[in-house]
Specification:
With 548 residues, the protein is mainly alpha-helical. The chain is built from 21 helices and 2 strands.
């Protein structure tokens, strides 16, 4: 029996997308062999474990917590869909719809991309899932459960893929219709998920309460369907029937919805706003003019105002600060939640360092990427001194107050004295200048031809494509900038180690706080020296920069 034409076209599109991805991310034979061996080893371990669980269930020594399994199924599906939807958005952006939609309908494109993702997840999951189902069926002596587990997982994966595609196209459609949603899409989409995760993991919410909340959700019925083939397990027949209706009807409804959204997304023009948002004149009156007009030259202030406009449109510095603060912030939070409940003394310095590094990377490392569209005009209209000074002014005007406020806010609840907190704050501000100067000097090393127009999705920004560099070079540049600022901060960080500060304090006959204060002064002086050196290097590189 021949396949329907729409199914053939969908399979062909899925194969084409698979070929494109394989050519884009060409993995070595060694990597593929290692991945295969890892999957095989995992499958063997899963099969042995499942056999033991099934045998225990049959003998009555093991009781499956059905409530927990149902809740875990719901949580797994809900947390998986946003990640798959993000990948689907990237894949949809790389499809050439202008040519493809002249030969096939929208439904075939949606099914083809969904089939591509289904294959991407089904292949690595197939062997572990079959191993688990087989092992559990042999242990429980219930062959039918192997069939129900495999079929249920396959159907659930199809539901997740189609839900992710629909979720992705819904976001694209709303972004086309609303400029404001286009800018705040990341917060609108992921904000509720983060809030829900925060509530569920808060100390006042127990695991039993979370299970009670998630168990009644219809997605939990899928667990009953998977376990339906085991007579020794009391799974609900009514829930299993509901799961069949949910999986079968859900995939059909989501396919139709995704097709309708695809027709509107790929056949409509983007809606703009009648008002001009976040556009500022680089000359004339304004807050910057009132604050800095009498202190800096006109070219320096113009460069700074241009960088502020660029940062408002694409908030790279904000995202860098958030990304860098998340790591130490999580560590500090875990320490603060320890039985002692004390905030470490080095916390203000850690916050100052991360804020300074984020500001430097946001305003300095991406300097050429931000200036790329108008770089020829910038190179011919402003000197190196004015350009670097304007960049540092833009970064310091934004980063220094934020760094100082966060450092003081954390320092108030930490066991540090007023003098030490004052020196940490000053060191943080100086580290901001050092980080911006170093990142700018490193960012001006790259050639004009190394930049490409890349598709991105930056929170708080409606810009969909920005100039950037591919490969490992951007990450090496970020690592070098953070490394230099880290070396400058080493004296201060070492002074918070009791193994370092205590012997020095004993030898000098002074309290450990004085030793830490002295180390902070040393770090501040190093930051000034490195800033001057990096500033001169950045000016030289800007003046000597060549266009092809």
């Amino acid at each position: 029996m021949d396949q329907p034409a729409w199914l053939k076209r969908g399979i062909l599109i899925a194969r084409v997308e698979r070929t494109r991805r394989r050519r884009q991310f060409n993995r070595s034979t060694t990597w593929r062999l290692a991945f295969l061996l890892g999957v095989v080893a995992l499958s063997i371990a899963v099969a042995v474990t499942a056999y033991g669980i099934g045998q225990g269930v049959r003998q009555g020594t093991v009781t499956l917590p059905l409530d927990v399994i149902r809740a875990a199924t719901t949580a797994l599906v809900v947390t998986t869909i946003p990640g798959v939807a993000r990948r689907a958005s990237v894949r949809f952006e790389r499809v050439d719809f202008d040519h493809l939609l002249t030969t096939v309908p929208v439904r075939d494109v949606v099914l083809g991309v969904a089939g591509f993702f289904y294959r991407q997840y089904a292949i690595p999951l197939a062997l572990p899932v079959v191993s688990f189902a087989t092992g559990f069926a042999l242990g429980a002596e219930a062959p039918l459960i192997a069939f129900t587990i495999v079929v249920t997982v396959a159907a659930l994966l199809a539901l997740v893929v189609m839900a992710s595609a629909t979720f992705s196209l819904t976001g694209e459609y709303l972004a086309l219709r609303s400029p404001r949603f286009r800018r705040y899409r990341t917060i609108i989409v992921y904000g509720p998920l983060v809030l829900v995760m925060f509530v569920l993991t808060s100390p006042g919410v127990s695991i039993d309460r979370v299970v009670a909340w998630l168990q009644p959700v219809p997605l939990a019925w899928v667990a009953d369907l998977a376990l339906l083939g085991a007579p020794v397990i009391d799974s609900g027949v009514g829930r299993s029937v509901g799961a069949v209706c949910l999986l079968g009807g859900g995939v059909s409804v989501l396919t139709g919805t995704a097709t309708a959204l695809g027709e509107r997304v790929w056949g409509a023009e983007e809606v703009g706003s009648a008002a001009v948002h976040r556009s500022r004149s680089l000359v004339g009156g304004g807050l910057a003019e009132r604050l800095f007009a009498g202190w800096v030259s006109r070219p320096v202030l113009t460069v700074a105002r241009k960088r502020w406009v660029q940062e408002r449109r694409v908030p790279r510095a904000f995202m860098m600060i958030v990304a860098l603060v998340l790591v130490p912030g999580s560590i500090v939070g875990l320490i603060a939640l320890s039985p002692t409940g004390r905030t470490p003394a080095a916390t203000p310095l850690l916050i100052a360092f991360t804020c300074a590094a984020g500001v430097g990377l946001g305003f300095g490392d991406y300097i050429l990427a931000a200036e790329y569209p108008s770089l020829p005009m910038t190179l011919t209209s402003v000197s190196g001194e004015a350009f670097v000074r304007g960049t540092m002014l833009a970064g310091l005007a934004v980063g220094a107050p934020v760094t100082a406020l966060l450092t003081v806010a954390v320092g108030v609840v930490s066991p540090v004295g007023m003098l030490e907190l004052f020196l940490v704050t000053i060191a943080g501000v100086l580290l901001c200048g050092c980080s911006i100067a170093v990142a700018t000097a490193l960012g001006l090393r790259f050639a004009y031809t190394e930049f490409l127009l890349l598709p991105v999705k930056i929170p708080l920004s409606s810009v969909r494509r920005v100039f950037g560099r591919m490969g490992k070079a951007p990450f090496l540049s970020i690592g070098r900038a953070i490394g230099v600022v880290g070396l400058v901060s080493l004296p201060a960080f070492f002074s918070y180690l009791s193994a370092v500060s205590t012997p020095i304090a004993t030898t000098l006959g002074v309290p450990p706080g004085i030793v830490r204060s002295g180390a902070l002064v040393v770090t501040s002086l190093l930051a000034i020296g490195v800033s001057i050196s990096a500033y001169r290097r950045a000016v030289t590189r800007f003046n000597e920069y060549q266009l092809p």
